[in-house]
Amino acid sequence: MTSHSAILCVTLGKVPSPASLAQAVAGYSLHQVASLKEAERLQVLQPVRVGLLLIGTEFSEPPAALEEFLLRHWQVRWVALLPPRLLCQPCWRALVHAHCHDFHTMPLDAARLGQTLGHVQGLAALGTALLPATAPVLPHMVGISNAMTRMRGQLQRVAGVLAPVLISGESGSGKELVAQAVHGLSARRKAPFIAVNCAALPASLIHAELFGHERGAYTGASRERRGLIEAAQGGTLLLDEIGDLPLELQASLLRFLQEKTILRLGSTVSRTVDVRVLAATHVDLAQAVARGSFREDLYYRLNVLSLEVPPLRQRREDVLPLAQYFFQQYAGERSRQLRGFSRTAAQALAAHDWPGNVRELLNRVRRAMVMADGRWIMPPDLGLEAVARSRAELGLDDARVLAERAAIAASLLEAGSNVAQAARRLGVSRMTLYRLLAKHGIAVRSHQRDTLRSAPD
Ligand SMILES: Nc1ncnc2c1ncn2[C@@H]1O[C@H](COP(=O)(O)OP(=O)(O)OP(=O)(O)O)[C@@H](O)[C@H]1O
């Protein structure tokens, strides 16, 4: 069970234990740990929803494992307490901005911190009133980009209500994962989550699949069968590629959404079903409505709430953490000597445009883990050499953008994410490099350096 009035206090480095801390946390039970490993263990045994992060003076950059830890525990509302000097460092600022609900600087103002903690506890309690008391079963959603941080916030809000959600995004960008997260965060999480790909089922079968049929409803229906909507009773139904649902079925679906009842094929008895419907699409449904291939009334019914999963090329900072995550996930399939990604492989990953989004990245990493015969994955193992060669076929503008991005990624890697050094290597000012980083959506993260530390070219 999640403890509502407990605070996990993680101290990293040498922090002179501020006497006034006790005053700030008075009334809460404080779980104090001095390492991320201990914090990890405690979160399993006694999960909490509010965390205090005390950072010592000796860190010039966030420890590599910290960001991963914060990513894993994104449901905890963190308040950071750190020396003011660290806030001058872009890497610390980015980390606090991405993962913390609030921050305070040393020396500690106990009254102010006490107020912040009260506020954060209040918000967390609001969240738990909407959410189930036990830790929800959630898919692991990797991503450090602003877009993913925003998405996590939206998921929490959307999960607490019953309305349908329309999830849009390019193929392979993670729409189904988002749907699983909505289900996993909702009070329905113990009931079934059923995903139906409307594009994969032939139109002739999809009615019976969704709504079920009575015995003899059609040739071959030798016994009655409940459909997938009924199978999701109490839970969540994801209608993937909803844009491919035939028009006549759109009418039945609309009826179900309005009346919460279904009619099995061949039956005259309607059955009440309690199912939350999520729909996903990679096509622009508004355009489909304009073309007349999608019912307008159904579109508005489904689009009460909407979530948009951005394509991977618009959140490039997620590429390396995702690659690293898949590498660990499929570690069992790799040869024993394989250690990780070479720098050139990381550069190739950073420069690629990912038309197939996260699924393409997953496939390339798995392929590379099987194909690589050295200790480090090289670009050809990822099938990315062809991408480099095909640049000859690009227009000059695109080629310039790609070359600029690759040069920036390479200089950052070589400079260990030190922006000043990277700018010197590139022969531009620091300000220009910051502008270029923003233009290409590249975030400077300490873990990128660590992921690649000691990796050869
Ligand atoms: N943020 C993420 N963290 C970890 N894995 C992810 C993430 N996003 C996507 N994936 C993985 O990438 C693969 C593709 O994602 P998913 O199936 O959710 O995409 P989709 O948008 O629903 O694709 P399609 O449009 O083809 O149905 C899955 O294996 C999923 O688990």
Task: Tell me the layout of helices and strands.
Layout: E1 3-12, H1 21-24, E2 29-33, H2 36-45, E3 48-55, H3 64-72, E4 77-82, H4 90-99, E5 100-105, H5 110-130, H6 146-159, E6 165-169, H7 175-185, E7 193-197, H8 203-211, H9 228-231, E8 236-240, H10 247-259, E9 261-263, E10 270-272, E11 276-281, H11 285-291, H12 296-302, E12 305-309, H13 319-329, E13 340-341, H14 343-351, H15 357-371, E14 376-377, H16 385-389, H17 396-414, H18 419-426, H19 430-440, H20 446-452
Parallel strand pairs: 1-2, 1-3, 3-4, 4-5, 6-11, 6-12, 7-8, 8-11, 13-14
Antiparallel strand pairs: 9-10
This protein binds adenosine-5'-triphosphate.
Overall description:
Keywords: ATP-binding, DNA-binding, Nucleotide-binding, Transcription, Transcription regulation. This is Helix-turn-helix domain-containing protein. The protein is built from 20 helices and 14 strands. It has 457 residues and is an alpha/beta fold. It has three domains: 3-130, Rossmann fold (3-Layer(aba) Sandwich); 146-309, 3-Layer(aba) Sandwich (Rossmann fold), CATH 3.40.50.300; 313-452, Helicase, Ruva Protein, domain 3. The strands form four sheets. Strands 2-1-3-4-5 form a five-stranded parallel beta sheet, sandwiched between helices. Strands 7-8-11-6-12 form a five-stranded parallel beta sheet. The protein has a two-stranded antiparallel ribbon with strand order 9-10. Helix 3 packs across helix 20, helix 6 packs across helix 7 (175-185) and helix 13 crosses helix 15 (357-371). The longest helix has 21 residues, at 110-130. 39% of the residues are buried. The model is unreliable at 129-136, 386-390 and 446-457 (pLDDT under 50). It binds adenosine-5'-triphosphate (ATP). Adenosine-5'-triphosphate (ATP) is lined by residues 140-143, 169, 171-177, 240, 280, 282, 322, 358-359, 362.
